[in-house]
Amino acid sequence: FDTYEANKLLGHGEDLRDYKVAMQMLVALGHRRVRLLTNNPKKAEQLSELGIEVVEVIRTGVFLKDSNRNYLRAKAVHTHHRLGPIETLNSGTVQTATIPAAKTEKV
Question: Long-range pairs for 12-19 at CB < 8 Å and ≥24 separation?
Fold first, then answer.
């Protein structure tokens, strides 16, 4: 199971992260407007709902490896992370790749 599936099996929501503490820190530092580095659309939505003006969302780079392919797929499928072009290293050169859709398995 991926993290999201495991959370649901335990009776929780897929992603229970809460950005109230982030909002409180930003306010304490006098920042009510931010340029946010994230691929997670929920993070920007929550901060906006909490009164932080997100003036720009800047996607972070993503580097695809065999060891993180399923992790990145889960983020894209379950929480709609905007992964954009993904770089992968093949034969010493960086190439753009995409995360293929998860395979459907019969249980």
Answer: 14/78, 14/79, 15/42, 15/78, 15/79, 17/42, 17/43, 18/46, 19/43, 19/46, 19/47, 19/50
Amino acid at 5: E
The pLDDT tens digits for 46-80 are: 999 999 999 999 988 787 788 888 888 888 888 88
Largest Cα–Cα separation, the chain: 52
Instruction: State the pairing for strand pair 53-58/93-97.
Output: unpaired
* Rounded CA separation 36/39 (Å): 9
Q: The whole model's pTM is what?
A: 0.70
In DSSP terms, 87 is beta-bridged to 63, 96
- Pick the residue with more confidence: 102 or 5? 5
Please tell me the predicted confidence (pLDDT) of residue 103: 41
- CA 81, distance to chain mean position in Å, is 4
Catalytic residues, by residue number, are: 15, 17
Dihedrals phi, psi of 27, to nearest 5 degrees: -65, -45
